[in-house]
Amino acid sequence: MAVLLQGSPEEIKLLSEWLRADQVAALPTETVYGLGGNALSSDACKRIFAAKERPSWDPLIVHVDSVSSAQDIVVWNEQAQRLADHFWPGPLTLILPGRGKVAPEVSAGKSTVAVRMPAHSLFLEVLKVSGLPLAAPSANPFGYLSPTRAEDVQTMLGERIRYILDGGPCEVGVESTIIDLSRETPRILRPGRVGREELAQVLNTDVEELLADAHSHISDAPGLAPWHYSPRKPLRLWDSELESLPELQAGEWLFRTRTVASGSGEQGIALFSGKQPDIEAVARNLYHALLKADRDPECTQITVESPGEATALHKALSQRLRKAAARYPIR
Ligand code: TXA
Ligand code: MG
Description:
The chain has ten helices and 15 strands. By secondary structure, it is α/β, with parallel strands linked by helices. A hairpin with a 6-residue loop joins strand 9 (177-180) and strand 10 (187-190).
């Protein structure tokens, strides 16, 4: 079991020293918990890959506490400045040409580096006190659901890491939007809460979106493997706008994202409270609910109501769920 830290000044100091010694620790961000380590150290990065069983071809995001720390690591440009002014700290990762400063494991053979300034006060404190840029992928075993609670990190990686900094439930609940600024036309590699229209507006230019669907190819963007973000139990999507509720098998759990069960005979657990759909609440609860279902022996398979595509956050959740459903499809 890992030790849960609450973030007192002494604990932040201890964690910072731990990270300066090239060890790794789970840290809270506003999106999902990350597994952090010194981005300048190959030893630390190798520990991250080992704990997650992450293949070495999949590059890491470097977390920084300021634009000037980002500028030490990547070749900054005007588009990056605009986006950072507008969205940092926050759930947006920028891909830019590297400066050869970070450990080679971070870029996994690419010439670019992904950078982001997270919006979580405890993570920012660790960055400041340690004085390090921190590489941090989501704190899950490779390909699995991302953790949005300290207890979920404990469940997933508790046997493999020493410390988890508990920053409460993640406010966003889905991983950052990733935009590649290293090319002529900026391109979104992973959808997140910050959407294409918003990005295009701030940049005042076209923004492309990689069609990151269930079957997009790994070489387009390494983390877009067909079955990312997946529970181990079979998962299917139910489009409540197009079809009536499919018949549920014994042990099949249903999660609702936009409708609530209206009668006592109706099934399903809403991922938001109250009668009004609330996509922000759905995002905060989704991974946690899926993890619970995946671990509960009573649950044999999972159906999730499709969130639809109404906003950037809806689209991001739909993309994650399509991938989850692609792993062990129910036929
Ligand atoms: O919200 C987030 O971004 C969270 C929190 C912890 O910050 N982190 C996260 O990291 O989701 P990870 O490693 O689970 O996903 C990062 C994705 C991977 O799919 C990786 O392939 C991609 O970013 N990536 C990283 N560097 C890249 C690069 N230079 N070029 C293309 N893709 C890159
Ligand atoms: Mg991940």
